[in-house]
Amino acid sequence: MTNTRSQPRSAARLAAVQALYQKDMEGTGLARLLREFHEHRLGEAIEEEPIAEAEPGFFDDVVAGVDARQGEIDVLIGMRLAEGWKLERLDKAMLQVLRCGTYELLARSDIPTGAVVNEYVDVAHAFFDEKDAKFVNGLLDGISKDVRKGE
Question: Is this model's pTM higher than 0.85 or not?
Answer without folding.
Answer: yes
